[in-house]
């Protein structure tokens, strides 16, 4: 077969050679295909065939052409160019006639007619195949993107750490061609928390797989080693052998002690975190090579103390290195400056994304994954102190009980029993009393666990008041200002399918048990007020 | 204040695994509930029945444990039914939609009979 470059992909052929005449005449001639013949793009034969008006007897051709020699060696006698819309798209190569006679004028006319009909059909077939190949290629790329996204999302944490006195925030925005960003929070011994932000070079499935490996090693090694420098050294040594060529991972690993605010950290070539402090923006610098490049690397370990009111930003380069239409970069100084204005991590994330959108504009596709993680220490963390004054009671409001319970798991039962005793004379019917008890139990559990961090020395204060229409139970913890999360209906199907944690029912239950739910906060305390109407209870009794 | 400690016994009733639950279903019930379920499915019954008749308190963590148990049973293509729930916890099972995925019956006989 003749192989020709460019768009001339299809070549019709006919058996070029008969068996040697020494073979018995009775034996049927064996069909032999001509070997492929390459024709270089600059071979003069191409120009010659392009201009030919019909079948060409190559035996008579006088051209300095390697392809011509190759065709002759392959036993080709006659070549009929296939031309469609003025374009040479293939050759019909014929060997000698079996009769050993020359091709006649009739033969040539028949072949020319055949080529005239075949060429457009061959061209159409070529175009269809090219389009099919393009579609397959597009589908393959889309499929790869979906796989990469799936892997990536599989390894992102479902929940943020919930630590009294601390606020965590996280954002992950994948680029269309998914990069290898990741972040994680790892529970460590003695109540410490490991915080990871990383970025794998490269994109798509390879990056996602390296991300998954790195994530798994970090999860396995962090609780054992804890110290950031040791963790990164270990992860690097394990990754070096596994890492595909030209790939590596940048990674910032920090360990927070929530009790003291001490933050130890080491950095494997990742972006420097910024801290918004009372005195301005500071940087958490530590030196170290990216992971997976060279074995036996050492990582500098440093530490900082995150003071009440401080906010730390960990970020991947998808933010600072984003470009606008004029190819200007969003830039690290801008990220640092915006961090300096922050007083709240989640607000900071929203602000950064809004500023980025304004900078880049609506039409440009996101270049790289963007990952942002914030941790903020509340100004009131660990404040303790006396509970705030109860909201001023109305003229008809009278207190039925005021007591406190220590922040130990299980003590919500104490609160339930004391509230039940306090409201005994109000005539709440059985079902409504049960609902109030469940709400008190859940709210007290939240106060013990989330507000006071299960620290027995911190009390949960409970007061029970009533007026002519309602009974109100106010439950106060020392966790300081924190917004009441929006109450969402848990997705039971997702939980049963194992796609979500089975937990997350507390607030939903509280809201569905009582007639009204409000929260009040001050610098040091967080109070949830549960309201149950008495009037409906009276109606129910009558 | 420590409440009534959680406990669970397992028995078989007409080829159905029945788990008798006692006390409080809260975080502390985690291991015992799981162990009871393991015992109840040893003979690979198509249905597991939970007896809540002697349960006096279920908090949100307990709800999560039941959701986890139900998720596991569904994965194993097993049906879970319940009886002995007080009116209050029937209401909570309705609000949380647990009763959409777990048949709630008045007593053991009707729970078991419905599986035959």
Structure overview:
The complex is a heterodimer of chains A (542) and B (116). Chain A is of the alpha+beta class. Chain A contains 13 helices and 21 strands. Chain A has three domains: 2-128, 2-Layer Sandwich (Beta-Lactamase), CATH 3.30.450; 155-377, PPM-type phosphatase domain (Phosphatase 2c, domain 1), CATH 3.60.40.10; 398-541, Histidine kinase-like ATPase, C-terminal domain (Heat Shock Protein 90, 2-Layer Sandwich). Helix content of chain A is 34%, strand content 24%. In chain A, the strands form five sheets. Chain A has a five-stranded antiparallel beta sheet with strand order 7-16-15-12-13. In chain A, helix 3 (105-154) packs parallel to helix 4, helix 9 (412-422) runs antiparallel to helix 10 and helix 10 packs antiparallel against helix 12. The N and C termini of chain A lie far apart (100 Å). By secondary structure, chain B is an alpha/beta fold. Chain B has one domain: STAS domain (Transcription Regulator spoIIAA, 2-Layer Sandwich), CATH 3.30.750.24. Helix content of chain B is 40%, strand content 32%. Chain B is built from five helices and five strands. Chain B has helices spanning 30-40, 60-75, 87-95, 98-101, 108-113, and strands spanning 7-13, 16-25, 47-58, 79-83, 103-105. In chain B, strands 1-2-3-4-5 form a five-stranded mixed beta sheet. Chains A and B meet through helix 9, helix 10, helix 11 and helix 12 of A and helix 2, helix 3 and helix 4 of B.
């Amino acid at each position: 077969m003749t192989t020709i470059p460019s768009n001339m992909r299809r070549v019709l052929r006919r058996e070029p050679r008969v068996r040697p005449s020494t073979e018995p005449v009775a034996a049927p001639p064996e069909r032999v295909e001509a070997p492929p013949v390459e024709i270089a793009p600059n071979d003069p034969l191409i120009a010659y065939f392009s201009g030919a008006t019909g079948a060409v007897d190559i035996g008579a051709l006088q051209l300095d052409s390697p392809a011509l020699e190759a065709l002759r060696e392959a036993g080709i006698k006659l070549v009929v160019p296939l031309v469609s819309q003025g374009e040479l798209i293939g050759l019909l190569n014929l060997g000698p006639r079996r009769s050993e006679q020359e091709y006649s004028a009739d033969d040539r006319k028949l072949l020319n007619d055949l080529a005239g009909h075949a060429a457009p059909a061959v061209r159409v077939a070529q175009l269809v195949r090219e389009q099919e190949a393009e579609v397959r290629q597009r589908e393959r790329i889309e499929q790869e993107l979906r796989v990469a996204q799936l892997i990536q999302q599989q390894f992102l944490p479902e929940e943020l750490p919930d630590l009294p006195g601390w606020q965590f925030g996280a954002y992950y925005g994948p680029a269309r061609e998914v990069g290898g960003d990741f972040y994680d929070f790892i529970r460590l011994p003695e109540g410490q928390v490991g915080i990871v932000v990383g970025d794998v070079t490269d994109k798509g499935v390879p990056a996602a797989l390296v991300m998954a490996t790195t994530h798994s090693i970090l999860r396995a090694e962090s609780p054992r080693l804890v110290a950031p420098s040791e963790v990164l050294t270990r992860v690097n040594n394990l990754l070096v052998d596994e890492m595909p060529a030209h790939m590596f991972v940048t990674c910032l690993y920090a360990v927070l002690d929530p009790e003291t605010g001490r933050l130890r950290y080491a950095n494997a070539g990742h972006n420097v975190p910024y801290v918004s402090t009372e005195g301005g923006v500071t940087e958490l610098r530590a030196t170290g090579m990216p992971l997976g490049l060279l074995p036996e690397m050492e990582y500098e370990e440093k530490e900082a103390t995150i003071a009440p009111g401080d906010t730390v930003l960990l970020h991947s380069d998808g933010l600072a290195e984003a470009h606008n239409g004029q190819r200007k970069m969003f830039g690290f100084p801008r990220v640092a400056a915006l961090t300096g204005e922050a007083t709240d991590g989640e607000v900071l994330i929203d602000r950064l994304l809004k500023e980025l959108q304004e900078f880049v504009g609506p039409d440009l596709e996101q270049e790289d994954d963007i990952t942002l993680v914030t941790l903020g220490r509340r100004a009131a963390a660990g404040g303790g102190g006396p509970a705030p004054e109860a909201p001023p009671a109305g003229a008809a409001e009278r207190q039925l009980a005021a007591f406190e319970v220590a922040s130990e798991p299980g003590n919500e039962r104490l609160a339930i029993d004391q509230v039940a005793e306090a409201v005994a004379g109000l005539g709440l019917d059985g079902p409504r009393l049960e609902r109030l008890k469940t709400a008190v139990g859940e709210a007290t559990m939240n106060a013990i666990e989330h507000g006071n961090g299960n620290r027995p020395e911190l009390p949960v204060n409970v007061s029970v008041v009533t007026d002519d229409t309602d009974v109100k139970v106010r439950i106060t913890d020392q966790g300081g200002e924190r917004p009441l999360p929006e109450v969402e209906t848990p997705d039971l199907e997702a939980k049963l399918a194992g796609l979500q944690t089975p937990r997350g029912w507390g607030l939903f239950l509280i809201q569905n048990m009582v007639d009204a739910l409000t929260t009040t906060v001050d610098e040091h305390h967080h109070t949830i007020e549960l309201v149950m109407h008495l009037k409906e209870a009276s109606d129910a009794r009558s | 204040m420590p409440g009534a400690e959680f406990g669970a016994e397992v028995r078989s009733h007409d080829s159905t695994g029945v788990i008798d639950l006692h006390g409080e279903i809260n975080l502390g019930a985690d291991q015992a509930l799981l162990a009871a379920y393991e015992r109840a499915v040893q003979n690979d019954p198509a249905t597991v029945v939970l007896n809540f008749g002697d349960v006096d308190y279920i908090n949100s963590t307990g709800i999560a444990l039941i959701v986890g148990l139900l998720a596991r049973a569904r994965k194993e293509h097993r049906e879970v039914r319940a009886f002995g729930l007080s009116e209050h916890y029937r209401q909570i099972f309705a609000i949380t939609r647990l009763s959409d995925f777990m048949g709630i019956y008045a007593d053991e006989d009707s729970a078991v009979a419905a599986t035959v």
